[in-house]
Specification:
Blueprint lengths: L3 H30 L4 H5 L10 H20 L13 H16 L13 E4 L7 E4 H26 L6 H5 L3
Antiparallel strand pairs: 1-2
Helix pairs in contact: 1-3, 1-4, 1-5, 3-4, 3-5
Amino acid sequence: MTNAIFNASIPVFKQMLGGLQEVLRKAELHAADKKIDPNALLQARLYPDMFALLRQVQVASDFAKSVSARLAGVEVPKLDDTEQTFADLQARIATVLAFIGGLDAEKFAHAAEREIVTQAGTPKEKRFTGQSYLFNYGLPHFFFHVTTAFAILRHNGVEIGKKDYIGSY
């Protein structure tokens, strides 16, 4: 029996985080080749009221791990958000990939109907079914932050394209 929620989440998170790793690798090489302070890219943002690249990557990885954990019915692992370098971001993504890669598909057997309760940045509680949580909340937020990270780097001259964004599938 196939598990639609598992198949629509874990492989997608793995693919896109893999693409994000490659984009970050290219950004680090770009900074070295052009003699740009890496922090200039890590702190770059598309607009003053938006998160910088570093925070975009942290939030994207947070969505991948937290959405996966909640759908699997396991505790969401805590990451400290102390990353300051490209190497730190790569390690963070590797940690999240290891976590989600270790989630057994059987844990997602009843994920579509599972009640998910969040308090996304506010004291106001939000309730979802697992299916609604994944498709209407988790994936859109995840893609927003991955896309914004990509756009920040492309805007700052890193030679990346759609193939880099999409990653391996």
